[in-house]
Amino acid sequence: xxxxRRILRTAAATVIAAGLVAGSVAIAATGxxxxxxxxxxxxxxxxxxxxxxxCSGPLLxxxxxxxxxxxxxxxxxxxxxxxxxxxxxxxxxxQLAAPDVTDGAGPTVFEVAPVGRSRIDAAAAQSRTVxxxxxxxxxxxxxxxxxxxxxxxxxxxxxxxxxxxxxxNPGDVAATADITVYTVEGETxxxxxxxxxxxxRTQRVVPVAALAIGEESPVLKVTxxxxxxxxxxxxxxxxxxxxxxxxxxxxxxxxxxxxxxxGVVVGRSSSTEAGxxxxxxxxxxxxxxxxxxxxxxxxxxxxxxxxxSSAAEVHLAPGQPLELELGALDPGTYVVRLxxxxxxxxxxxxxxxxxxxxxxxxxxxxxxLGDSTMVAVARGPGAMLTLTADEGADATVQLIxxxxxxxxxxxVIPASGAVQVDVAGGEVYEIVTVSGNVRGAVSYxxxxxxxxxxxxxxxATSEAMTVYPQ
Length: 470
Description:
Distance between the termini: 61 Å
Strand content: over 45%
Structural class: mainly beta
Oligomer: single chain
Number of helices: 2
């Protein structure tokens, strides 16, 4: 009896084991059942913070202190225009420290506190006019939000140039700046541009000659760590002891396959004469070879339909800036469009070409505007606003004067075209994009005066964030 039970138990165990093996084989053959579980995600709008708009500050002069020719001093205080969207929000104004400038006043920073859960956009711009033995000309620049990465396709370290790289930290956290310089030798990382500490609420000044001595057409990339930075270049030139103009150049667009440079003002025929060519495009492909199509459009009669005044094709070697003369251009305002096989960046240099009162200006590539953008128009001669539309479709904008309390003008911009309107210096405008992709620039032209700065997208939008709880 006992023996029989053992036999039955053994047989049962064998059957069960066989069943388990068969089940495993079946699962292996058909595949393990898969259950996809979406991670828990929460979408939230961050608590709004103040909008920070920083300016480049006074014009600076080198060598005015006879006791030390290497010292920098303030040469001309800026005339500043600032405002907020429909005069809303509480605006606070402060000055950054300027330890590299003897008794320097420092740049101005505007901060606008949010109203409820809404950020309030702000705009500011500055202009300066100086007529001295060592500096002469007109400069206008827009104030903007700081960035973690900034590109400047302007300036020079050639003989006669006294160009300065201005790096401002308007925040409350120390930042570090690393400067990459692109020259005819390619990409470099100069010792003078490594790990520059920018204390909170401070502006530092680095001579361009310390970064690329003797280089005529450098392109600079400033990479920030820990906090965003505002970057610009003060450019000036002296020829045989006579000052030949100045400018404060804004950052240009980050490298992209398509770029638009609006508001290029040509004051006279661009035929090459003794000295610098009046209208020159500086181009860079940072990483690889590029073939670039350059289209130059004239904005005639207040608008252009996208027809090309002139075109050229250029080949770029990686990491080496190239300067292209844009040829004989009649006086007027132009838009330069670039289409490249790989990401490129660049800017245009123009000149008044007047031998008795010469001035020049750098025109940077512009980013696309958002739904609502504030633009401050600095005081200066012949102020104009140029707006462009990307290819593919017409764009429509509303230009609202006097911070929303004035007249509204609706403008239709043809696809791949541009419009130009007169604007009043000292005023703040709102640009409402109704449709299309729009870019813009404010430019100036007068006797011995030439300047331009891009319209920067509004900083008031707080994008929603997706949070994944652990």
